[in-house]
Amino acid sequence: MRLSHLSTLSLLTAAIGLSFASTAQAAQSDAPNLSNAQFQQCLDGLKNSSKFRDVDSYTFNNYRPSQPDPSVIASLNYQPEFQKDVWDYLSSLVDTERVDDGIRANRQWADTLRKIESRYGVKAEHVLGVWGVESNFGQTLGKKPLFESLATLSCFDRRQSYFQGEYANALKIVQNGDIAPSDMTGSWAGAFGQTQFMPSTFLELAVDFDGDGRRDLVNSVPDALASTANFLDKRGYRSGEAWGYEVKLPSGFWAASNRKDKKSMSHWRNQGLTLANGSPLPSDLSSAGLLLPAGPDGPAFLVGKNFDTFYSYNASESYALAIAHLSDLITRESSSKTDFITAWPTDDPGIGRQESRAIQQALLNAGYDIGAVDGIIGDNTRTAIQQYQSSRGIFPADGRAGQKFYRAIVGNTTHNNSYGNQYGQPANSRPLNPAPADRMGQLIQQQNTTPNSYSQPTAISPSNSGTTRSMRYRRVAGTDGVIKLVRIDEGS
Ligand code: CA
Asked: Which residue stretches does the UniProt record annotate as biased composition, category Polar residues (predicted)?
């Protein structure tokens, strides 16, 4: 839904996942200079244009930005520096934390979800799958002021006409009294609220389900969940159908991935396909197409019409698969194993956000300025990983955060005392080639940690100080398992 009418942007979001944070980081360095005079002149023109006919002048003037936001133009033209494999995309999006959050949400909102299912015919787990992938169950709504973003996109660069419509629609939402103006924040492109609807989608499909007279997709979970169900319903959802199944291809079977080429289940049965666990294919899908996200050697899926409704939310098959998979794991209440039955065709699978945060913390500790530890492996983190790999002779230096790199930099911090340090190097080993200001590189030479002592002072010397002053750090494991170096005697 979010950008499905914007093919370029959809490919963009598909390629980088939902990590708007990484585009924001890129945006700061690549933001263009925009003329405010030109911006204000453009807004004067918009105010009197047909698209803004239904926006009253009080509303237009009251929320008129005083200057453009160049970072959204940088985001519009952002090209990811690194390609993301489908298994990395899925691992980061459908991880243990998100499944646990989904299981909790399923219990907390059980009554509401039941009512939504009876009104719209959409299964609770499918609504939860969308909610979890779109906004992490309402936890990640985006912080960009919508009027600034949309006004800027309306006046500069590509797609101005499209964004002018969305800008006008955003103003209408506030004018109608559905959403408080202060709640009008979202992604750089204008998707907002717990369902991450674009303003036009909001006006078309948002519903008031808690009965307070406002369609509040920011603060009302019932409104958000019902609006998601309404979206899926209007896009052709089939009540009572599964989204599809992970399947097993018979040996020697070859077919191209083509989700749209739908065939009956008996057709697929006759071709020798079974469920991934070997059971016969069920008959509860009216038709299904074959989806092979990583080719014939990876996980295979038969997907029905309901999968297509997930796809219509964001025009990416990986995205739709994340929703589908998350909904299955929530139903099964299974968060310990988030993999598919068939492994991805790689010897270095992806990682979840917990591992990503641990990698980021280790990079920070090693002196790489990657910004905040947010569990999102964006360009800054990947560049730092690449530098770290190069400096230590780790091959390939591809900047990718997979399980191998996780083990290399974080290591195993729970099992025994021979693991050495959090880079997974043996105790007393020396770093291959310490990066400048690599405090952890210094620490490596003195490593003597015991597994159950999470707060052990370790004396190290600053690498570039040229003095004999020593600083002391202690290693502290947080509740999330991330080990941090905390300086304990600064200036001593
Ligand atoms: Ca409401």
From this structure: 448-470
